[in-house]
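Give me the fold.
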Amino acid sequence: MKKYCMVNEIKPERLQEYIDAHLNPWDELLHCLKDAGTKEETIFILDNKALVFVECEDMEIYLEKFGRSEVGKKWLEFVADFIAVSPFADETGKAVDNADGLRKVFDLNQQLAGKFEEH
């Protein structure tokens, strides 16, 4: 499994709606994320930035599978107006060239084991 981190800028006036949507996700969305290949996904909020951590085999495949699914399309349409900037996927959920996310430079367990991987 690879680990990815992305930062999405949320419109300040829609931030609480974005948070509420993630605190109370649709059950079908949770299953869709798993079916698309996500082992783990965690979101943290800092000001109006959403720090999204995803663990999956391949981010591009994950984003494409999620974006093609009916639930994924419905979710992307629902949250589209909350997000001011998402540099990692287009409006359909298709990965863009920099879908690898932020560059990882430290991983405690990997470095203790002498096997650091950027994902």
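Residues 59-68 form the longest helix (10 residues).
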